[in-house]
Amino acid sequence: MADRPDWNVLLRTCPSRTSLMEIANKWTAMIVVVLGSGPLRFTQIRTAVDGISGKVLTETLRRLERDGVVERRSYDRIPPHVEYELTDLGHSLYEPLNALRVWAEGNIAQVLEARQDFDERS
């Protein structure tokens, strides 16, 4: 697209801001990280993402499907079989979100220590 505008997420009118808001959602990040290992069924995702309700998982998967990040595949079987999988766009999002996961897990001890120090000073 030759006439593509210069997107700027810092501008409130830029449509990329809504995309960033969705990506920054904690459930979105966790679902994308979980699906990075391959297609999963709804119950497998719900089990892997501890604490997410069925309602929130359904809503988040629908938003991710709408944004082209996740593909929902339904198989004509009895009982019904549905899987969710990252699209190419979703795989491009997996890497930075997984890097954030690695950072969070690798630095939580320092974060907890900083919080305790801050709280003791306050």
Low-confidence stretches: none
Query: Taking all residues together, what is the mean pLDDT?
Result: 94
**Which radius of gyration do the C-alpha atoms yield?**
18 Å
Number of strands: 3
**Residues in β-strands, percent:** 5-15%
Query: What class, by secondary structure content?
Result: mainly alpha
Looking at the structure, the CATH topology is: Arc Repressor Mutant, subunit A
The CATH class assignment is Mainly Alpha
Write the layout of secondary structure elements.
Blueprint: H1 16-23, H2 26-35, E1 40-41, H3 42-48, H4 54-66, E2 70-75, E3 81-86, H5 88-121
Antiparallel strand pairs: 1-3, 2-3
Commentary on this structure:
This protein has five helices and three strands. It is mostly helical. It has a single domain, classed as Winged helix-like DNA-binding domain superfamily/Winged helix DNA-binding domain (Arc Repressor Mutant, subunit A), CATH 1.10.10. The protein has a three-stranded antiparallel beta sheet. Strand 2 (70-75) and strand 3 (81-86) form a beta hairpin. The model has no long low-confidence stretch (mean pLDDT 94).
